[in-house]
Amino acid sequence: GVNRWGLDALTKRIEKDLERGVKSFLLFGDTTTKDETGSSGLTEKGLIPRTLRTLRERVGKSALLFTDVCL
Question: Which residues have C-beta within 8 Å of that of residue 36, sequence separation ≥ 6?
Fold first, then answer.
């Protein structure tokens, strides 16, 4: 399914899913900020870069994370 999660709720959900054996996750950015170059994926303060950093800090390499670049 498709859900919109805040960073804290998403992190908790992924941690629970990892406990249940789910290892792969596909993350989509905020489409309201997309542009022709995908700049929101490159900026340090962008939604996806922040999310990836937080998830790596919390779950390490136990999750396989995929992202959409919102072009």
Answer: 71
Q: How far apart are CA 47 and CA 17, in angstroms?
A: 21
Give whole-number Cα distances, 10 to 36, 59, 71, in Å: 27, 12, 23
Predicted TM-score (pTM) of the model is: 0.80
Local structure of 68: helix, strand or coil: coil
**Euclidean distance between the first and the last CA atom of the chain, given in angstroms as a whole number:** 22
Q: pLDDT tens-digit profile of 34-54?
A: 778 777 777 788 888 899 999
